[in-house]
Amino acid sequence: MNRDYLLRAADAGKNVRIFLAHTTGAVEEMRRRHNTSATASAATGRLLTAAFLMGADLKGKEDSLTLKIAGDGPVGSIIATADAEGGARAYPLNPEADVPPRYPGKLDVGTLIGNGYLEVIKDLGLKQPFVGRVELVSGEIAEDLAYYFMKSEQIPSLVSLGVLVDRDLRIRRAGGLLLQAMPEADDKILAKIEGNVMQMGPISGVMENKESLEDILAEIMGDIKYEILERRDLTFRCKCSRERLKSILAGFAEEEIRDIYEKEGKLELRCNFCNEVYVYDLDEIYAEKSRKP
User: For the whole model, what pTM was predicted?
Assistant: First the structure.
């Protein structure tokens, strides 16, 4: 697989819906921008992949989804957001934090995150966004999301998220799977599909050994008839811009702006999500302030 994309599918009997995503490029872009450690790459990459999977359910062009993991482990919090058009972004509070592997070849994401909570915020253009929060079950993220779906949305779900990190810290493979039972689903069908998934092994390894998501989906479904409902490209996409951050900086008090300039010799803002740095001069910010009501 040489591109990031997502499949949305359902079985012919409407027992289950399936979201399957390849996210290697997006997770590598996140790693490159934030210079994350191996375990921080795995943790943030999993949450970024989850945002892509859940973002596929957004309908309106302005709808958005935010996932936040807040734990007491070394990485602190991790935040990922997704839009309705296949874009998502993510960052960890402490990107260089790391912990020893659980065993050779198995990064210890749970220890890096620690105990805390998972928060899901869906802004669907209503008066108030939907906010759901659950305690972390393991800190491994996939289990925590499955617990969230059951606890907050009453949807039985199977979640599999994986990130393979090379020795040079580049992302070798990343992707995820989300299976959700439909109302009045046939338990036998669900059990059969779940059994197929369990036989496949870790999703990151499956991504590495299969040529396409279509091949993986066929293995998941076996002899159960299904339909692919959507294919969409995915990309690491940030909503920041020079103009947007300039407007934020112009909202500071004039005395505060001058104080920053005198101390730093420049006016600089860095976007948390993409790590892009924007530098402004005083005249530029004062001109922006004069345009504000």
Answer: 0.93
